[in-house]
């Protein structure tokens, strides 16, 4: 089967490609979530899940569809020309988020070292995850009086690291305007990766136990 490209057809392709280029300038949600999940698991010392083996691509008989290997060949030179001119190399690459810089690595190490000190207070419910990506003191009465100032200090240090982390990730990717979306992504992932029993705030600031 041969494919012939009419002028309206090419116009539609150009419009779609232009739309793809526009999409690439937006916040890379999937890449940000993947990066956040890696950092959160590291900070909380959550073991990495073992990926399932790929079951393999569907065969021709399984899909019920058959594709002519010659289909679309006539359009390839034109499409290659359009792609080369409409989509710059950076935009054509898979979306990714840079999370490996000296500053980010220092912050991650600091958070990882503090994790074992915060964990007992997460389990007791004295502290929990805020809906803004920070740690919030929920019930200080769960902490012995002699230890309360130490817990408050730990929470303050943790939140300082988290604020720096969100900012540094945005800076490392040359998009300081992404800091808010990065924080929002982390706020959700902290809760998703937290062990059962930890407390967290919902969108209205109400406490819930996972």
Structure characterization notes:
The chain is mainly alpha-helical and 210 residues long. The chain has helices spanning 7-23, 29-44, 60-63, 76-86, 89-92, 102-124, 148-172, 179-193; strands at residues 127-129, 135-137, 199-201, 207-209.
Task: Please give the number of β-strands.
Answer: 4
Main sheet specs: 2 strands, antiparallel
Radius of gyration: 24 Å
| Percent helix | 40-55%
The global form is globular
In short:
The protein has 210 residues and is mainly α. The chain has a domain at 102-209. 55% of the residues lie in helices and 6% in strands.
List keywords for this structure.
single chain; 210 residues; globular
Write the layout of secondary structure elements.
Blueprint: H1 7-23, H2 29-44, H3 60-63, H4 76-86, H5 89-92, H6 102-124, E1 127-129, E2 135-137, H7 148-172, H8 179-193, E3 199-201, E4 207-209
Antiparallel strand pairs: 1-2, 3-4
């Amino acid at each position: 089967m041969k494919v012939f490209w009419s002028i309206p057809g090419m116009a539609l392709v150009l419009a779609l490609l232009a739309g793809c280029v526009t999409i690439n300038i937006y916040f890379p949600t999937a890449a940000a979530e993947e990066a956040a999940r890696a950092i959160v698991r590291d900070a909380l010392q959550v073991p990495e899940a073992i990926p399932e083996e790929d079951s393999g691509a569907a065969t021709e008989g399984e899909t019920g569809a058959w594709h002519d290997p010659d289909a679309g060949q006539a359009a390839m030179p034109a499409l290659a020309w359009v792609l080369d001119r409409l989509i710059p190399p950076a935009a054509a690459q898979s979306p990714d988020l840079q999370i490996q810089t000296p500053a980010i690595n220092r912050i991650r190490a600091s958070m990882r070292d503090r994790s074992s000190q915060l964990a007992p207070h997460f389990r007791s419910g004295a502290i929990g995850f805020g809906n803004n990506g920070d740690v919030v003191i929920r019930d200080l009465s769960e902490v012995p009086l002699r230890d309360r100032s130490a817990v408050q200090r730990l929470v303050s240090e943790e939140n300082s690291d988290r604020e720096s982390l969100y900012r540094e990730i945005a800076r490392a990717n040359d998009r300081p305007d992404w800091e808010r979306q990065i924080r929002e992504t982390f706020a959700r992932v902290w809760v998703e990766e937290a062990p059962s029993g930890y407390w967290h705030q919902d969108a209205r600031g109400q406490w819930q136990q996972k």
